[in-house]
Known about the structure:
Oligomer: single chain
Strand content: 15-25%
Amino acid sequence: MNHILLEISNLHSRLEDPEKATRLLFTTIEQSGKFPITPGDLSIAFVDDTQIAHIHGNFMNTPTPTDVITFPADIEMASAGEIIVSVDHAQSRAGESGESFSRELSWYLVHGWLHLAGYDDRNSQDRAQMRLAENTILAILDQNHLSKSFKLKA
């Protein structure tokens, strides 16, 4: 990645080596040139529902599990931002929606990236633009077979 330095922390016991898949996913998004983010260090953390609920409570006063939390870039610290995703949430939601676990987790990472690119989902109009951008990126990932790269240990 030219302008982004990834820092990946796998804090989930069952997620199998997500580094390669994460790097390929974000490199593909960056190389598309369609959704640029601030250059710098991009921190990615894969956590469980308990960990994300704790973060959700501390920073957003909602101590419940959620799918993804994104913290914005900080130019002074050369930070492109931080994306925290719940592996547990992706696993349970994939079962409910009929999507694969890998595609669900990929969607969370895409969603976080788009927040860093300036997209929002607080109202229906912004949400519609976010969904269109998500679908565009997921189509690019699907063409490159990258939304099937994340795996859980048995």
